Amino acid sequence: MQANTYTFWKEKVDHAIAISDNHLSDDISIISIADMLCVDAQTLSRRFEIFHQESFKQFTKRRKLEQAGGLLRHSAFSISQIAAYCGYASPQSFTKAFALEYGETPAFYRNKLYLPNEEETLYITKLITSSANDLRDIFCMDNTTEIYEGSFTLYYTFLPSQHDPIRNMVKYMMAYISKFRVARSTLLMPEARIITGTLDTVPVTAYDKMMMYVGLLVPTTNAYNFMHQRLRAGFNDMNLLEKHIPANNYKHLKLNMGFAEAGLPMYNFINHCCRVSYFKMNSNQFFISLTGINTCEVFIPCEKRYGC
Question: Cα dihedral angle (207, 86, 243, 217), rounded to 10 degrees?
Fold first, then answer.
């Protein structure tokens, strides 16, 4: 594949993933997405499989079930609620699909101490980031605050992965942060946050398939309409993807450490708190706000009726 062809189709495939991520509860087809992107559906399908080693249909099915697995682990939603949230017509059809994918029912999966991909992902993350397991004096309920945030639009790009997402996240992050700092400064958006996270479901998604992102979280208010238009038009040749982040309640934690050091103890904190019901999440999408070289803030979406 020639360089210009590679870049063109990589952008289209990334946009297909972003559209799919915004419609995980729906049965959106590769044909519909190709129409949105003004490309041939068969060619987009072939390119998608080249880049991700699975068909678009397999990809979307896997991600729906991974999302369900994360909600089973960290939320208080019932199996029926999770089935509907992930686009299944009935709890029975969801249970059948889940059992075929994971070899066990959702109810059994929910009570497992460790998930199949969990230990590997956490072990690799610890090796790469040299992060401590928990830092319990820092990552504790006493240090969190409960905040409510209005809706945002996330303008983001995927970080290079090469099947080693955490290593490449650490390697390339600063270059991408610099670009988003320029965008934030040029467009006079002091309230916009530079954030990082993954669209995938930790710890359900296999390590080599995780897609890490970095982007600008911009308030969805009239005051920012012009900035939204500029970012959607491709500011400074940044071909950004887009995701709506609804208003939510968060557990919020300010940290005097960098994002890489914070990742592992953050996950262990979330996992422990959800297990003992200090709080329950209402979405899989927690994220880190990059406030400085050695400072960051953690945002964990949670249910108001479960400690948030």
Answer: -70
DSSP code for 159: P
Token look-up 């949670």 returns 302
DSSP tag of 142: G
User: Mean pLDDT over all residues of the chain?
Assistant: 93
The two tokens of residue 173 are 């992050």
Residues in the chain: 308
Virtual torsion, Cα 200, 205, 207, 209, nearest 10 deg: -70
Rounded distance, CA 34 to CA 53, Å? Answer: 19
* CB of 212 closer than 8 Å to CB of 166: yes
Question: Quick check: helix, strand or coil at residue 308?
Answer: coil
Topology of domain 3-110, CATH: Arc Repressor Mutant, subunit A (1.10.10)
> Smallest Cα–Cα separation from 230: which of 222, 238, 248?
238
**How many CA atoms, within 13 angstroms, populate the side-chain half-sphere of residue 257?**
18
Provide CB contacts within 8 A for 96, sequence distance 6+.
none
Q: What CATH homologous superfamily does 141-306 map to? A: Regulatory factor, effector binding domain (3.20.80.10)
Q: What SS3 string covers 76-132?
A: CCCHHHHHHHCCCCCHHHHHHHHHHHHCCCHHHHHCCCCCCCHHHHHHHHHHHHCCC
Spans of all domains in the chain: 3-110, 141-306
How many Å apart are CA 194 and CA 214, to the nearest integer? Answer: 7
Largest pairwise CA distance in the chain? 54
Q: What is the pLDDT of residues 3-14, one digit of tens each?
A: 578 889 999 999
Instruction: Say whether pLDDT at 307 is over 70.
Output: no
pLDDT tens across 129-173, in order? 988 778 999 999 999 999 999 999 999 999 999 999 999 999 999
The pLDDT value recorded for residue 48 is 97
Neighbours of 198 (CB within 10 A): 21
